[in-house]
Amino acid sequence: MQFMRVVRHWRGVVVASLGAGVLLGGLYYATATRLYQAKASLLVLQTGADVNNTSMTPEGMRQGLMPTYERLFHSASVLDGALKYLQPEDRIDLDPNHPDTWVNVIRTNLTAVTIRQTNIIEVSYRSKSARASVAVINAVLRSYFDFMEKTHKGTAGEIITALTKDKAQLEEQLSHKQEEVSQARRKCGDLGIRSDSTVVHPMVQRVVALNEALIGIQQKRLEMQASLAAVESAVRNGEDLQQHFLALETSVGREVLLSGLGFSSRDAVAQSNMEKSLLEDEAQLTTLRAYFGPMHPRVVELVDRIRITNQYLAEYRTRVGQRMNQMRDGQLGQVLMQMVQQRLKETWEHERALRANFEAARSEAVAYTGELERLQILEHDLKFLHDFRDVLLNKIASIDLKQNHGDIRTAVVSEPVLPKRAVWPKISLIVVFSVAGGLGLGLALVYVLDMLDDRWRSPEELRTRLGAPVLAVVRQMRELHSVGLDAVQMHAFPDSVETEAFRTLRTTLAFSSHDSTRIVVTSAEPKDGKTTVLSNLAVACVQSGKKILVIDADMRRPGLSSLMGVKGHKGLSDILVSSAPLTEIIAQFVSSSGFPGLDVLPAGPRRPNPSELLSSPRMADLLAWAETVYDQVLIDSPPVLVASDTSIVGRLVDGVVFVVQPNKNRRHLVMRAAETLTGVGIKLLGIVVNRAGADGDDVYGYGAGYGYGYGQGDTQDAEEGASADATTATDPQTSTAGLNVRPPAKGARGPQAVRRRAA
């Protein structure tokens, strides 16, 4: 709330700052480069995986790799390719003198975002030209498709090369085998053996069995070679290896894979047995539930066994998955290649052993059966080679099909459309930022100005900062060039509007909950009008029927004595230095003001030690005597920041009335003066705001040459009170602004209150 009052005071700065922000925003909107944005939507679909899968994504991880497809749009390979499709007129955003910055410029203006919960990537580009934005989007999409196709075909091509090499070797073997069959037929001629005969010699059967085993191991070896080529290609291209790991389970074997991950063969056997047992238990449970209830012991036993088995299998799969996740891609690739190479080596050894056995059996069969059996074997070999060639051709055709139709399916579902209007600058955002920036800057300036400006702005701020009520608000009054009561506004013009402030001050003190019989009136600095406020308050109290004594306790610069025309008379200083009984000599020093009910005790001659005099017991005795004779005692003391006299006298009275001149007094000085009083236990009755709203300095009070030294001439004395420097507002209602008026407390003093006796 305090800061809002400050903002209200400096509202012109806030309005000017807000206007400047709006003006700058409008200037930016008028001069900003217009940007146009084109958009396109790309659908990405993925299918299953196998050992020869050349796609970039394993099954079950499609959605997780959608960010990868996003990042590809910002890759240098895609953006470099897009530049090739751009025409010179479409390169409006690119600096022709710096081709090395083109990729970065396109990357900065290009955005690729996956729409949530979909497989659609939205691609957008901002450009100075609407036509160029569409052209760049189309070029990027074409380059993206080229990159995906090239990456996909690169892996498939390596596998096809390996299989084609095996096919060439097989064709050569097939040619030789056909020649051998032809020669054998010509040599043996027709032996009478028909192709539909079911009688086969045991030696021939053995050869046939070995031949079939050899064919099987050779097929397995080819699959292992293809798997090895796929894994090596995936390692070189940095692809995900988990799909190859799962695909190798059938060719390499579960036990070998688990052994490569650090698991024993017994774990695989145990898992297999557990799975088999689980199926049997589930089937048995289904049967029992048809006849028994859920609480039957046998049913409960099967349910617990199934639960334990499922828990074991889940933990086993978790351990396998954790082991795979712990291994880096490079480590997993090395493990897979080592397992495949080891398995391939074993297959080669097995094949060589089978071939050796086959050759030996064939030799024996030839020896026993002659040329007929040899012919049958050759025909069987020929058939095997034909079948094996068919397998290779089908494998090559399958991979070539995947090369042209991979597991990644991309299609443009929303073509870029030529934008009709610019997307930037956006008037709504500029208005918001302009208003927010201008308002923020204005508030910051207000805060800085408030820190630099140390003036008081309102009575409310005084009350909040000093923690005391504002008793009255007065302003500049007319000058009265005279002395005595004629120089007091309250006496000279009792019916004027300006004097109402002092009646308000009198009423507020009378109805205060604190005792206000003995009051000190002071200020923070000289020339604040404290003497004028005290003299007018004294006359106002006398007009209400009270008997008042005013004491000039400013023995350094006795302004009240000058105002009342008793300067140079004996007074307070004489009483304090005298040792005679107070009641015998007091009448010599109290002067009549000429106004019934108002007496004045001048400051008296100057003394070198006023602070010591005021702190003597004689001052307390004087105040005790005055309280028995007068209804109210008003004391004028020096400014708080100039001398310590107020702190001494303030401890002997009921409280202090603090006079503040907002246009003159600095905030930190007033607060320091108030803290000086409250720090020593002095009650701050309230604040009188003097000259509120006045522009010039006070004419009366302590002048710039005010000094508290001694030996100076009387010509240096400033006449406080020669003219009034505090008035009320012209409106009678203004005099009560900021006042803290309370109903009279029980036992509070009034004009006819019983006087306390002297100590």
Describe the structure.
This protein has 759 residues and is an alpha/beta fold. 55% of the residues lie in helices and 9% in strands. The protein is built from 25 helices and twelve strands. The strands form two sheets. It has an eight-stranded mixed beta sheet, with helices on both faces. Strands 2-3-1-4 form a four-stranded antiparallel beta sheet. Helix 2 (11-31) packs antiparallel against helix 14, helix 7 (202-237) runs antiparallel to helix 12 and helix 8 (242-252) packs parallel to helix 12 (329-369). The longest helix has 59 residues, at 130-188.
Label this structure with key terms.
759 residues, alpha/beta, eight-stranded mixed sheet, four-stranded antiparallel sheet, 12 strands, 55% helix, 9% strand, elongated, disordered C terminus
Would you spell out the secondary-structure blueprint of this structure?
Blueprint: H1 2-9, H2 11-31, E1 36-46, H3 66-73, H4 76-84, H5 102-109, E2 110-114, E3 120-127, H6 130-188, H7 202-237, H8 242-252, H9 254-260, H10 265-289, H11 297-326, H12 329-369, H13 371-404, E4 408-414, H14 427-452, H15 459-466, E5 470-473, H16 489-492, H17 500-510, E6 518-523, H18 530-543, E7 548-552, H19 559-563, H20 572-577, H21 582-589, E8 591-592, E9 598-601, H22 610-614, H23 617-629, E10 632-636, H24 645-650, E11 655-660, H25 667-679, E12 684-689
Parallel strand pairs: 5-12, 6-10, 6-11, 7-9, 7-10, 11-12
Antiparallel strand pairs: 1-3, 1-4, 2-3, 8-9
Helix pairs in contact: 2-14, 4-5, 4-6, 6-7, 6-13, 7-8, 7-12, 7-13, 8-9, 8-12, 9-10, 10-11, 12-13, 17-18
